[in-house]
From TrEMBL:
PANTHER family: S-ADENOSYL-L-METHIONINE-DEPENDENT METHYLTRANSFERASE YKTD-RELATED (PTHR43619), S-ADENOSYL-L-METHIONINE-DEPENDENT METHYLTRANSFERASES SUPERFAMILY PROTEIN (PTHR43619:SF2)
Keywords, in A-Z order: Methyltransferase, Transferase
Gene Ontology molecular function: any one: methyltransferase activity
EC number assigned by the record: 2.1.1.-
Protein name as it appears in the record: Class I SAM-dependent methyltransferase
One Pfam match: LCM
Domain of life where this protein originates: Bacteria
A biological-process GO annotation: methylation
Species classification: Bacteria, Pseudomonadati, Bacteroidota, Flavobacteriia, Flavobacteriales
Keyword Transferase: yes
Amino acid sequence: MGHQKNIRVHETAFVTSAFRATDENLSHDTFARLWQNSKTEKWIIEYLKMVSSEEPFTHCLRNRYFLDEINALVQKNEIDVLINFGSGFSMYPFLLDKKLIHIEIDKPEIVTYKRQKLEHWQQENVLAKRDIHFIGVDFTSEYKSGLITKLNAIKGNRPCFILIEGVLFFLNREETNDLFELFKTVQNSGDYIGSASFQETIKNTQAFKNLLHFFNLKVAKTSKDDYQTIDDQYYTSVPNYTLIDQQDYFSLSKKYDHKVIKEKTLILNENFYLLKKI
Ligand SMILES: C[S@@+](CC[C@H](N)C(=O)[O-])C[C@H]1O[C@@H](n2cnc3c(N)ncnc32)[C@H](O)[C@@H]1O
């Protein structure tokens, strides 16, 4: 008998939120802590021990980077809609100006659960009201034409920012290409994509080896493909888009005055990309 896989892919969203909650000064996410629960706390203790103790900070800085970039574009009136692919339990709607329209896309069970929880917290006045549309979709299924119709109906021709963070690791290249193809279809010139992924070279680090070991042991995956890494070249050659910014944990640590603790090989260094449609 193999090890029992006790974490499902969509449940990794709880882990991401819990990491963001560990340093609110760094993440600027004051609502992530709402998702805390004892099951996640248990996984986190194991994860930090088995994978990398620097993980809370890499997640805090990822949130901070995208939050600040999106916020700057909202302030300049460059975007009206934020479309979050694989949105999990991220709390951008409550951290950004209320005029923004949000479209949150994730697996059906995640968006149903999130909607219920948000409505509950709104009734309790823990969260403010926001314009949020939820769409349940599995990116490994036949979803494209239905999703394009729904997105166009909600956003019309309004300028948008598409965010995809913490997701591509779980998808294969074909599924990723399909998503970027869809982004091109729904976006207009001047619209933005923010994406997070690991580069191929991370496979040589101890932290990534630890991560794969942890996932193979604990996380029930939907397909048997390897976890995906993506090189810079993928982003510099997305048709109709230009890469306008690229960061990683180390550059963001400098930018936000965060002290890196561990040596490089013990850190899961994720890369962050901003693309603009030509
Ligand atoms: C690690 S969480 C990240 C959540 C969120 N983007 C964040 O940064 O807080 C990964 C998310 O991707 C979603 N996801 C993974 N594979 C997916 C798929 N095939 N279709 C839809 N969503 C998927 C999961 O349900 C989960 O919410």
